[in-house]
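Writing this down once: the sequence line spells out the residues, with the fold written below as integer tokens. This is how one looks:
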Amino acid sequence: MNYNWPQIVRVDPTSEENLPGITSLTEELKKWEWNFGKTPKFHLTAMRHFKFGRLAVEMKVNKGRIENCCFLLDGTTEKLFELQSSIIGSRLGRGDMKQQISESQEFGSNSVDIVQWLDSLL
């Protein structure tokens, strides 16, 4: 018996010739607006124990921007008011929030741990 096997055709997934519009689509899907800007409104509440105490966070996010943020450090918000205010309006996935926390004097050397924790939540 003689079989006529189909021929294998290699396709370059980045080729405009094979996939018209693939370059512009790829660029669009890499943009912040696509990955975060179209995110529906959500509310996040989380708590974690750190060396310096228990930290809770509550955030309201809409279309990838933090609309409201509240940090509770062992039940108090007074020390963290400035940091909370600086985070409001930050965009997810852009490093805005990470930068604000890293530059804040509130957490000192614990900033890295806090940023990693928040990254895991968002």
